[in-house]
Write a structure and sequence with these properties.
mainly alpha, globular
Length: 189
Amino acid sequence: MKRRYSLRTIGAVFLLSAVVGLSASTGARAQQVYSSQPQPQDSQQSGNFQQPPAPDAAQLAAMRKDVQVAASYQLPDDFLPRMTTTLQALQDAGLQPPPPEGHISLDDTIKRVESVPGIEPVLKSQGFTARQFVMGLTSFGITYAVTSHAADAKDAPRLNPHNVSLLQKNPDAVRALLQQMGNQPAQPQ
């Protein structure tokens, strides 16, 4: 049976990408981040949890680059309410973008989202392409994580100043988006 994951899981993965960017200086820390991803169903049933290997130097460099690209991505001024509405529309349509697996690039994540049957019309109706959806959620997650944990952000990616301002000026919209991300129903296993 193919597993489907909630948007909450996806949001957590995007937020975890920010943690990888903040702590990617050690492979062990990156492995801790990736070990919190959902495990295949058979390993959950047996109690044998298989952690993916820590990323190698090339994967770590690619991950850092992707995190910086996403952190630099400028969110549109109406991103917060529009993404909240988009997540609700996806939930209402019963659509779940697949979560990244292992050490997957932003481009591969975008391709995986594009491959979900029926997702394109829903995203388009909300003014997003798959790329804008992934980049927006990832940029939001990184910006939120870094600004929420400034004390731990010495190695943080450079954030887009517009995005920092957008989140600071709209705390209610940030909470609404985070709540919508947290309200996604878990999918049957």
